UniProtKB/TrEMBL annotation:
The active site is at C52. It comes from Candidatus Protochlamydia naegleriophila. Thiol-specific peroxidase that catalyzes the reduction of hydrogen peroxide and organic hydroperoxides to water and alcohols, respectively. Plays a role in cell protection against oxidative stress by detoxifying peroxides. This is Thioredoxin peroxidase. The keyword Protein biosynthesis does not apply. InterPro entries: AhpC/TSA, Peroxiredoxin, Peroxiredoxin_AhpC-typ, Peroxiredoxin_C, PRX_1cys, Thioredoxin-like_sf, Thioredoxin_domain. GO terms for biological process: cell redox homeostasis; cellular response to stress; hydrogen peroxide catabolic process; response to oxidative stress. GO terms for molecular function: thioredoxin peroxidase activity. It comes from the Bacteria. Keywords: Antioxidant, Oxidoreductase, Peroxidase, Redox-active center. One of its GO terms (cellular component) is cytosol. Belongs to the peroxiredoxin family. Prx6 subfamily. Belongs to the peroxiredoxin family. AhpC/Prx1 subfamily. Residues 10-166 form the Thioredoxin domain. NCBIfam families: PRK13189.1.
């Protein structure tokens, strides 16, 4: 089995594979660098390309939003750290920012293959736009794949992180098109009346036994 075949089978719930890489911030041991943080690990087709330039610029400008949620950012494209550093100057100039997270140098595509970021039918060298969201236990919680020609929506990435953190901390899921402050859905696994009272002091609406809506927990208690 090739690396590629193996790694295209990465799934939600798998531990994110560890690696050592040269980056624009120096040598990085991935699991050690993750520590207890969440992480958005995203790939770019190629250095010195327009859509990627806008994405890295936007992600840099949104860094404080990710930090607020205890999320680290790290990006990869198949290219050298020297090229990434040169390109960073253009990103800073044109996107009015200063790239503030590591870009992984992956000249031979080894890490891209480890994560199944190269889809040979799209392009046999360059990565597609993948996003892996990794939680503090280093498990993959979300995988998203976009074509090279479509820039990603970083507001959606923040939204899904909010949703997953609400699930972890408050036993709720989030309905279609949920946004911060909207009602949430009580996890079907929570059925005990005392637990329901304790977890949802503001009450809930039962529309069906399996469809119970509650005000978003924690709203108004943000730091
Ligand atoms: C871009 O980042 O602009 C891009 C890269 C590959 C194909 C199309 C667009």
């Amino acid at each position: 089995m090739t690396n590629q075949t193996q790694q295209l089978s990465l799934q939600i719930g798998d531990v994110a594979p560890d690696f050592v890489a040269q980056t624009t911030d120096g040598l990085l041991y991935f699991h050690q660098w993750l520590g207890n943080s969440w992480c958005v690990f995203f790939s770019h087709p190629k250095d010195f390309t327009p859509v990627c330039t806008t994405e890295l610029g936007l992600a840099s400008r949104l860094k404080s939003q990710f930090e607020k949620r205890k999320v680290k950012l790290i990006a990869l494209s198949v290219g050298s750290v020297v090229d990434h550093s040169e390109w960073t100057k253009d990103i800073n100039e044109t996107q009015h920012t200063s790239v503030n997270f590591p870009l992984i140098g992956d000249e031979n595509g080894q890490i891209a293959n480890l994560y199944g970021m190269i889809h040979p039918k799209a392009n046999d060298t360059f990565t597609v736009r993948t996003v892996f969201i990794i939680d503090p236990s280093k498990k993959i919680r979300l995988m998203m794949t976009y074509p090279a020609s479509t820039g990603r929506n970083f507001t959606e990435i923040l939204r899904v992180i909010d949703s997953m953190q609400l699930t972890d901390n408050h036993s709720v899921a989030t309905p279609a098109d949920w946004k911060w402050g909207d009602e949430c859905v009580i996890l079907p696994s929570v059925t005990d009346q005392n637990t329901l009272k304790k977890l949802f002091p503001n009450g809930y609406r039962q529309i069906k036994p399996y469809l119970r809506m509650t005000p978003q927990p924690g709203v108004g208690q943000e730091s």
